[in-house]
Design goal:
Blueprint: H1 3-16, E1 20-28, E2 34-42, H2 44-50, H3 62-65, H4 74-84, E3 88-96, E4 99-109, E5 113-120, H5 122-159, H6 163-176, H7 181-190
Antiparallel strand pairs: 1-2, 1-5, 3-4, 4-5
Helix pairs in contact: 5-6, 5-7, 6-7
Amino acid sequence: MEPDEAEGDFRSSLEALDEAFFRMRAVRDTVGTIEDFLYEYCNPAALRVLGRPPDDVIGRRLLELYPAHKTNGLFEAYVQVIESGEPLRYEFEYNENGVVGEFEVFVCRLGDGYVLVGHDISERKRAERDMATVAEQLQAALTSRVAIEQAKGYVAASFGLDLETAFLALRRYARDNNKRIGDVAGSVVSGDIDLAGGR
């Protein structure tokens, strides 16, 4: 296969990739310090993430389009990849100039620059947070249920009641005092509420 043909095949593969792919070149000052990065190539998936056509991106500088990179640590991370040669895998939130979401990226040095491959993980992170919230709610419900069962037993034993009547007493106290029954139950067991005395 001729070099031009191989290059064409490689570019076609990048164009078809559903992961965002960026090739960036370092822009250095007169003493060789990296002061910015230039967009050399973005595949269609990358342009969709940016929400821009190629002419608005290719040949432009990173900090010109997305200056928040300088203050959120991303720029320094990319510089470190080039200077150390160590690749970087990173998750971060971003919200600037139309680019909004949570992203996972892999960055590695290429020549005097880097390539970045990444994708939007907003949906996955939202699902993880939702699952964590549900788990917390279930744990709270379980903790409350255990406290209620303990309080029912305590009230039943203290006043010679059956469990159902003890539960009704707890529920009535909670309703009359505008409290959650789980909180009342915990306070009864700890001795902070005396159902007989009404405090």
